[in-house]
Amino acid sequence: MKEKTIKHILTLEGNGQEVLVEGWIRTRRDSKEVSFIAVNDGSTMNSIQVVLDRTFPGYDDINPRLVNGASVSIKGKLVPSPGKEQSAEVSPFEINILGDAPAEEYPLQKKRHSFEFLREIAHLRPRTNTFGSVMRVRNAMSFAIHKYFNDNGFVYVHTPVITGSDCEGAGEMFHVTNFDLNNIPKTEGKIDFTKDFFGKEASLTVSGQLEAEIYALALKNVYTFGPTFRAEKSNTSRHLAEFWMIEPEMAFCDINGNMDTAEKFIKYILRYVLENCSDDMNFFNSMIEKGIIENLEHIAESKFERITYTDAINELKKSGKTFEYPVEWGIDMQSEHEKFLTQEIYKKPVIVTDYPKDIKAFYMKLNDDGKTVRAMDVLVPRLGEIIGGSERESDYNKLLGRIREMGLNEKDYWWYLELRKYGSAPHSGFGLGFERLIQFVTGMQNIRDVIPFPRCVDTLEF
Amino acid sequence: MKEKTIKHILTLEGNGQEVLVEGWIRTRRDSKEVSFIAVNDGSTMNSIQVVLDRTFPGYDDINPRLVNGASVSIKGKLVPSPGKEQSAEVSPFEINILGDAPAEEYPLQKKRHSFEFLREIAHLRPRTNTFGSVMRVRNAMSFAIHKYFNDNGFVYVHTPVITGSDCEGAGEMFHVTNFDLNNIPKTEGKIDFTKDFFGKEASLTVSGQLEAEIYALALKNVYTFGPTFRAEKSNTSRHLAEFWMIEPEMAFCDINGNMDTAEKFIKYILRYVLENCSDDMNFFNSMIEKGIIENLEHIAESKFERITYTDAINELKKSGKTFEYPVEWGIDMQSEHEKFLTQEIYKKPVIVTDYPKDIKAFYMKLNDDGKTVRAMDVLVPRLGEIIGGSERESDYNKLLGRIREMGLNEKDYWWYLELRKYGSAPHSGFGLGFERLIQFVTGMQNIRDVIPFPRCVDTLEF
Asked: CB distance A458–B199 less than 8 Å?
C-alpha cells in the first residue's frame, strides 16, 4: 500500500479496502456534520476526497490544521461516494499532519494568483493546478520525444554544454571561466586564456548540431536533447537565456526524408500528449486556451503542406493582405507572414523549403541555382515557425567556399570540414525549441511559465 | 526500402529480395574472383557483407575506392551466404560511392589505435567498434533511465544549468558571465554584478537536488537527468568538468524507500542493457573487461546488503586487512575501503547508511543520536561508490540549526527553508553520475571514453 499515488487510488472502487493517502490539502469545506478535505499529491490534476466526521477522535484539534498547503498522511477505507464528482471517497481512521502550512503566512492562498506573482514563488508554484499540469505535460512530452527516437533507431547523443568554438553562429554566447574575475591574467595586455581552466576561451553552447553531425556520420540516426543558451538581452515573453532543444540528425537522408521525419515527429508528440494527459489537456482546454485540443487533433491528422520559399512569397503577395513588413523575395519571413501562411492560406502546418542562401546558415546545402539552400522550416498555426532544419552541405569544396564567402575562419571548422573529406554522406537534420513546443501544446502564453526555473535578463532566483 | 538500417537488414533471410545498403566500409578483402566488402552504418556492431564480382561493370574503377571509411550506397539482392559468419550477404547490382576516404590520409587506419589517440580525433572515433558500442550502450542506458522513472510515475524535471547560488556545496564552480572580460564593471573596487546579464553572480550547477526537492514537494516523485559541472583541476581518468547526473527525489519517502528505489533502479538498468545490447556487451566482455556480463548478471540478481556505517567500520577493522588509509569511526571511507566491503566481505552490492554527520552534507536528516545522518551510499564491486543519497532534513528548526552550525548563510537558503515551513514532508533522494554507471556497465577504464566529447582541464576541442 506504500507506493500508491493518488492517481492510482482514484482508479480504485469504493469497496471498503484500506488506503494510505499522502499529499497536500487543496481545500477543506466544513458542513454541519463532516469536513470535506481534498488531498492532492501532484501525480494527477485530481484530488481525492477525504470525509472527516466531527465525531472523529481529536477532531477539534486536527480539523483547524487541515488547511490549504498542509501535508498529511491519512489511512482510511475507500467507500462509495454519494457525490457526483467522484465515485469513491476516503473514510479516515488515522490522520497524521506531517507539515503545517500556517494560513496567515502561506503564500499560495486559495484565490487565483497571477502568473507573474507565481514566478516570484517558483518554489511553490508547482503546487498549483496550472503549473502541476504544465510540468506533467512537459514530462510526458520529454518521454514521448525519447520514445519516438528510440522506437525509430535514433541514438541519443549528449553534445557538450561547454564549447570552445563560437562558430555555431547563433548570436551572443555566455562566457564560462574559472578565472578570478578580480584578477584576470593578461599577457601583453591581452587576456591569457591559456591560463583558464580549459586553456582556451570557453562559452555555453547555442546548438549541438555540429557535434550531432559527427555522430550521424558514424551511427546514422542520432538526436540531441539538452540545454542550450543565448545571452540575448531580450526581456520578452518569448525569450529564455537557458532552454532545452531537440536536434535530430540523419545520415543518408536528404531534405525530403528530413521533412518526413519532422512531420511524423510532431504528430507523434501531439498524439502522445492527447492520449496520455487527457486530464491536464482538458484543464488547458477550458482554462488556458479554448479549443486547443481540437486544434492539436486537427494538426495531428493533417498532411503538412510543402511549398518552396519562392511559392510562399508569391502566395503572400497574391493574398492582397497588407503586412507590417512588406513581402519581397529575399526577406527573412516575419512571424506575421508565417502565421498568415499556416493559419489563413493553408489552415494547417506548412513546410517551407529552399530559402535564399543569404538569410540562412553557412552549412546548408546549396541548390543548383546557386541562390537558394535546402532549408526547411515547419510553420504551425498560433505559433509560426516551430522547426528549422536543412539538408547539410556534404561537399567539401562547396562548404569551404561558403565558409570563406561568409568571412568565417576556416581553422575553427577543421573537424567539421574533415567530415566532408572522409566518408562524407548526404545528411539532414532539424532543431526545435522544447519550450516553444510546450507552449504550442498547452497554450501557455509566456515561455517562463513552461520551464521549472526560468533564466532571463535579471532573473536567476532559485 | 529507404528506412532500413543494416541492423534491420541483418535480420532478413537471403531470399533474393532487394535491399539498399547505406553505410561506411569497414574492410575489403580481395580474392581471385570477388571482393568481400563489410559495410557498417553504426546501427549495430555488425557489418553486412557485400560480395562484389570482378565481372561487375566498372569493377576496376570502383573497387580501389571501396576502402575503409568510404561511404557507399549499394543496391543489391540479399542471397544466402556460404560463409559461417553470416546467413545472408548482398549481391550488388548498383554501387554509388557517396564519399571517398583517401587511404593515405584517413586517420582511422585498420590497425588498432590507442584510446588516447582516438580522443584527439573525437570527430571520427564513433566510427570505431569500441566507441560505436559505448555510444549505443550509453543510449540504451539513457532510455532505460527515462523508462524506469516513467513507468514508476516519476516526473522528469529539467533543473537549471545556470545557477545563482553557490550553496549546493560541492566544490569549485565555473563562473558564467556576459561581461566583457577586458572591461569588467566595478563599483568602489568591487565587481558590480548587478551589471551582468542576470544582475547577480552566476555559476554552472553542481547538482539539481535542491531544486528537485521543490518539485518532489509538489509532484511527489520526480527526477533530474542533466549536465552538471565541477571546476576541479584534477587531470585523472576519473574526472570530467562536465558530466551527466541522475537525481531522483521522492516525497513521503524515508531512507528505506530510498534504498528500495536505488536497488530496483540499478538492477533495472543492468537488466535492460543485458537484454537490449547483447552484441555490444559481448564485445565489451571479450575485448574490454573479461567476465563483465557474468558480473553484471550477478549484481542484477543479488539482494543488496544493507549495513550501517558503524557496522561497516567494525567489519573493516575485524578483517585484519591493512589499508593505506587507517580505518577509524569518523573517517570518510576511501575507495579501498568501499571496494573491500563490496568485493571481499559481501561479494555483492552493499548499501551503507547512517554516516557521521561531520562528513556529510547539511541537508541530510539528523538521527536521534545527534551524531549520524540518514545518508545512504551504494557500493558496487569494481567501482566502489556508485550512488550517494539520503533522507533529507524535513524539520525547519533542525535544518536551520545545521545551516548555522556549518557557517552557511541562511539567506541563501530562504526558499529551501520555506519548503520546511509550508507543508513539509519526509522526503529522500539520491544522485548518481551517469558516466561512472556507463564505466561500470562497459568496463571502460577512462571516463573520457564514455562521453561523446570530454571536457577536462585543458581539454575543450570539438
From this structure: yes
Q: H or E segment at B129?
A: helix B129-151
pLDDT at A172: 87
Mean pLDDT for chain B? 95
Question: For residues B123-140, b (16+ Cβ closer than 10 Å) or e, as one string?
Answer: bbbbbbebbbbbbbbbbb
Q: pLDDT digits over B7-49, tens only?
A: 999 999 999 999 999 999 999 999 999 999 999 999 999 999 9
Q: Tell me how far apart the alpha carbons of residues B370 and A151 are, in angstroms, rounded to a whole number.
A: 51
Is residue B429 within a helix (H) or strand (E), and if so which, with residue range? strand B427-433
- Give the type of residue at A277: C
Residue B171 scores a pLDDT above 60:
no
3-state SS class at B50: strand
Structural fold of domain A125-449: BirA Bifunctional Protein; domain 2 (3.30.930)
- The residue among B9, B11, B183, B23 whose CA lies nearest residue B96 is B23
Is residue A135 within 8 Å of residue A283, measured between CB atoms? no
0.90 exceeded by the pTM? Answer: yes
- List of long-range contacts for A231-234, beta carbons under 8 Å, 24+ apart: A231/A171, A231/A172, A231/A173, A231/A174, A231/A204, A231/B178, A231/B197, A232/A171, A232/A172, A233/A457, A233/B197, A234/A457
How many whole angstroms separate alpha carbon B159 and alpha carbon B209? 8
- Residue B135's alpha-carbon distances to A212, B131, B138, in angstroms, are 13, 6, 5
> Would you give the distance in Å from CA A347 to the centre of its chain?
24
CB contact under 8 A, A126 and B69: no
A6-99 folds as OB fold (Dihydrolipoamide Acetyltransferase, E2P) (2.40.50)
**Contact at CB, B136 and A174, closer than 8 angstroms:** no
Q: Which amino acid does the sequence have at B121?
A: I
Dihedrals φ, ψ of A312, to 5°?
A: -65, -45
pLDDT tens column, A377-401: 999 999 999 999 999 999 999 999 9
- Show the cell assigned to A158: 549528449
N-term to C-term CA, chain B: 34
Q: Which of A73, A99, A451 lies nearest to residue B423, judging by beta carbons?
A: A99
Given a contact cutoff of 8 angstroms between Cβ atoms, the answer to whether A249 and A213 are in contact is yes
Q: Rank A169-173, B119-123, B167-171 by mean pLDDT and report only the highest.
A: B119-123
**Side-chain half-sphere CA neighbours of B53 within 13 A:** 9
Residues of chain B contacting A23 with CB distance shorter than 8 Å: 220, 252
Domain ranges of chain B: 6-99, 125-449
Distance (Å, whole) CA A304 – CA A260: 10
